[in-house]
Amino acid sequence: MNALSRPLIDASPALLAEGYAWLPDRLRRHPDRVLRTRLLGRPTLAVRGPEAVRFFYDERNVRRAGAIPEPVLGTLFGHGPVHTLDGEAHRVRKEFFLPLLRPDLIAGLVEHVTWAWDEEVPAWTACERVVLFDAVGPVLTRGVCAWAGIPLDRADARSTARDLVALVDGFATLGPRHWRARRARGRLEDRLARLVEDVRSGRAAAPEGSVLDRLARHRDADGSLLDAGTAAVELLNVIRPTVAVGWFAVFTAHALHRWPEHRDRLRAGDTAYTAAFVHEVRRFYPFAPFLGGRAARDLSWRGERIPAGGMVLLDVYGQNHDEELWGDPYAFRPQRFLDRPVERDELIPQGGGDPRSGHRCPGEGLTIGLLEALAVRLARLEYTVPEQDLGIPLGRVPTRPRSGFVMTGVRTPAHAPAAVG
C-alpha cells in the first residue's frame, strides 16, 4: 500500500477537542516535522519550520482560493476578502492594504489608540474592579475607528466593540460563540456598506486619505469599484484585527503579572527591550493555531505527498514553540530577541512570507506598534490582581485567561515619564 492509499481518519473532532495542542502534539512524533492526515474530509499535509513557511507561501505550491472554510469566512474574514484571492487579483486588492506598512500610518493608529486609552483609564480608577479583556475592546475600537475615518460616538463604542470581539471569538467553534459572531458580522457589514455608499454618493464625508476614503475609491483588478458589501468586508479586515490586539494586551498583562521583573525596563521606556518583550508575548502566547491553504498541484514535502486540491497546514503555534528554533520555548524570555534578530520566517504569530507580495498579515506592524505602546502603559499602571482563574485553556480557540484578567484598585502613577507611542 503506497503513502497516498493509506486510510486516513478525519482529525476534525480531535482538532475541536484539543485546540492548539492538536497539531504540535502530532508533529512532535514526526522528526521531519511533516504529517499527513485528513481534515474536514480532505487529505491534509501539515508542515512546520522556516523552510516549510517558504514552501507554504509559494503560490506555485499553495493557494488560498477555496481554502478557508465557510464557517471561518462567515465569522472572521467575511466573504470575498483579500485572504481568499491569488495571483493578480490578490496583488491588486493587496495594494489597498500595503500602506498599512508605512511608519507614519502605524504611528497615527498608535496615537489614536493611546489617546483613547489615556482618556478611558481615569474611569477605571473609579471602578471597584476592571476586567481588562472587556475594557480594552472599546479603547481599541474608538482608536481604530477614529484613525480609519469611521464615525463612532463614544456611546456606541462598547456595543461596536462587542460585535468586533465576537468576530474573532467565534470563528473556531460551532457553538453559541459562532452564531453570535455571524449575527455580529451581519450588523457590522450592513452598517459599513451603508457608510461606503453614503461616502460615494456624497451623503457622508470621509477624511481625505483615510482608510474609509481610500477603500471607497479602490478599484479591483478588473478596474471596477468594489461593491459596497465587499468594501465593508475589507473595512472590517482593517478594524477587526486591530480590536483583536486586545487578546495580546491581556496576554501582556498576564506576562507582567507572572514575571513582574520585566516592569522596570518597560516603565523606563527602554525601546529595544519593549520591542523584544512584545515579540516574546506574540511568540509565547497562543493566538492562531495554524494557517491553511490548498495544494495548487500534486505536491511532495519531505517524502510525504498531497494531491492537488488537498489541504496544506502551517503549524503556527507549534513553530513558535519549536525547541529547535527557540531552545527553551516554554520559558518567557524577551532577552532572546535582544540576543538575535527576528527572522521573518521563524517568528510567525501572524503568518510568514513577505507581506508586500504574499499572504502575511500587512497589519503586523500595526499590532507591534500598538502592543509596544500598551505594554509600557500597562507596566506603568498600578493595580491589584485579586485571586482569580488566570489559566489559559489550550482547548479553546482563540484562548485567553479564563477570568479576562481582573484588576482592582486601578490607579495611575502621580508622575510617569512620557509613554512610548
UniProtKB/TrEMBL annotation:
One of its GO terms (molecular function) is oxidoreductase activity, acting on paired donors, with incorporation or reduction of molecular oxygen. It comes from the Bacteria. InterPro entries: Cyt_P450, Cyt_P450_E_grp-I, Cyt_P450_sf. Heme binds at C361. It holds the Pfam family p450. One of its GO terms (biological process) is sterol metabolic process. Its cofactor is heme. Keywords: Heme, Iron, Metal-binding, Monooxygenase, Oxidoreductase. Belongs to the cytochrome P450 family. This is Fatty-acid peroxygenase. It comes from Streptomyces capoamus. The lineage of its organism: Bacteria, Bacillati, Actinomycetota, Actinomycetes, Kitasatosporales. The gene is cypC.
